[in-house]
Amino acid sequence: MDPIAGLESVPSPSLLFDADRIGRNIDRLIGMVDGDCSLLRPHIKTHKCAEILDLQRAIPRVKCATIAEAELAAREGVPDVLLAYPLVGPNVGRLFTLIEKYGDTAFSTVIDSDIGLEALEAGAETELAVFIDLDCGMHRTGIAPGEEALSLAQRIDRSDELKFAGVHAYDGHIHDASLEDRKSRFGAAVSQVDAFLEQLRDAGIEVPLVVSGGSPTFALHADRAENSATKWQCSPGTTLLWDAGYGEHYPDLEFEAAAFLLTRVVSRPGKNRLCVDLGHKAVSAENPIENRVRFPDLPDVKFESQSEEHLVLSTPHAEDWPVGTSLVGLPYHVCPTVALHQHAHVIRNGKATGEKWAIAARDRELSI
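RE: above sequence
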């Protein structure tokens, strides 16, 4: 990768955001729906950052997973926020406090059970827009299409406190590298959604909107959104920052890696070994050790061990990397990696600018 100037003043380990690349990724996102931003509802769980919300202001709606993300979006003036996560316990009340505090933002959420519906009805003081969270194959949250899902939609439709906003269907189980395999599995998932939409219409329930899809299937959803009889919005998240994992698996999507990790050699513990300051607390560690970070300048590196503040590497070129040398890596999974950092150091025109963008919604609470 091209060298980044000005890193000598940036402490390590640090998260780096390339503002130019983020801007191009946003342009690419919009271009893939032929400039029709009404077809987009990007998920902000990847970046959690007010400055990036400002960069994507041409898209006046977002999806999020936490109350903090929803509050950040409202605080930044986003007009339309979908909280796409089942709310339980005190989070139900927090949503209604959010609605009261940020009256200029239209909030909506999802449910997949009668219990979730009753909790929202009990807390509602004004009408709340609610999506049915449909399980189209991931089996994480959502209700399977069929009679039970139809009954839930009918209950929403009859409710005085809730308004039926449509269907939310996340296809996060589709992450095949092969585009043909992705298309096949996408077709299977969407056929379930289509069948349920038909079932709703047969029952006399109009569907205002479908919000669907993640990053691997974004191009397929974009095509569907442009040609669907039902209004369809795409909700990718990783596209704005991208990462090594998606870059390796989905080159057809052509987004640019825009988030990097700065680390430095802190020790050389033996022949052909380097220890850098990139431990579990600076890069997501849910994947096997070889799939946590990529170092373009060390293509032959082997990952030996990692602990909280250390990553031990082996390479026949260790002697070329004295103690104190900087090394820039690409996170393999950017979303949980970003959440490990309080802020990102900003790169523009290939140079560290001294700006820092807070990862504000990494906190579980902002003011609510």
